[in-house]
Specification:
The chain has about 425 residues and is mainly α. It contains 17 helices and 6 strands. It has a 3-stranded antiparallel beta sheet with strand order 1-2-3, with no helix packed on it. A 3-stranded antiparallel beta sheet has the order 4-5-6. Helix 7 crosses helix 8, helix 8 crosses helix 17 and helix 9 runs antiparallel to helix 10.
Length: about 425
Amino acid sequence: MADNKAILKAGDKEIELPILSGTAGHDVIDIRSLGANGYFTYDPGFMATGSCESSITYIDGAKGILLHRGYSIEELARDADYIEVVYMLLHDKTPNTEEYRDFKDTITRHTLVHDQVNNFFRGFRRDAHPMAMLCGTVGAMASFYHDDLNIHDPEQRLRSAYRLVAKMPTLVAMCYKYNIGQPFVYPSNKLSYAENFLNMMFSVPAEDYKISPAVAKAVDRIFILHADHEQNASTSTVRLAGSSGANPYACIAAGVASLWGPAHGGANEACLNMLEEIGSVDRIPEFIARAKDKADPFRLMGFGHRVYKNFDPRATVMRESCHEVLAELKIDDPLLNVAMELERIALSDPYFAEKKLFPNVDFYSGIILKAIGIPTNMFTCIFALARTVGWVSHWHEMLSQPGQKIGRPRQLYTGEAQRPYSKIEK
């Protein structure tokens, strides 16, 4: 390496590749000229490949750092609300008082969905998975705004982003209400973003829903802590779909579909399923022993993280809200008792500290959602609701950058070489 270049020796060739530096994190080797020299890189899962240039989110997994536009996630979760974070992710700056008021008003007044959306839900079975309904209805939003889908117009892109952020809580609540056979609840402009979502989920025409401030705060934090997480599977899916010129609603529907996978958005649901498998506090030692046994396939869900090699920075704040909610609601639920005992063991057992298997954000958010009465099949929908702003921010950023090309990964072909074809009668 010399003069910020890497030298790749391939056969009898020496190929010079520029080394690029960002404001933080690893330097990257620019390999775009490799194809002209007869080579591609091979990196399944993109474990060591930078797919884009972005100024939205930075993660240092080894140090447990997560920054949005340079602001630490701990500060944002403690001192900001979700609407502030949405504005900051979309506009690359925090709002002043007037900007915040105007933006909050804009989002609030876009929460109502077109009345014909109700008809889409009537086409689903009542027992349809909420994520299946969410995929369909998000994609269908393009049919209502077909005159406002010029992706090359920054103003139209932002209007689409505002609509998606505003209407996603309404659609998610409609998925839940349709599942349980209750009438849809219209959004209320008098409530905050989190309060409005809770009201649409749990109120019924027969009586008002009393919104707990502690629960509303916890839900707002869940939204903040899931707002964006750099180039993960669903965000990369949105970017790849957007690179083709697809409309924003199709791109976000693609993100919803990617998030649906249990290896991605289903982590907190998997955590609750594990708690149900354990069942009671007296069975915890058995499962802890199984988790420590390398020969046993059992794994503790909600502990450790692929990205964070230390403590998940989001979990620190989420833990506070988790204990606040449980203290206020005073729920006597065996599963929540199991969760709290598992947390105690994980934070005191040297084995967990050595392996860095600390409770992560999925562990605490799953407990909170369970405590406030949200069924596990709705967990990933709420994740999608929160992550929508991250998806549209990356989509908007990508289309703002010059020289964008349609995504087209290469492959290592291992099939048959060219061979002659014999007619079927032979």
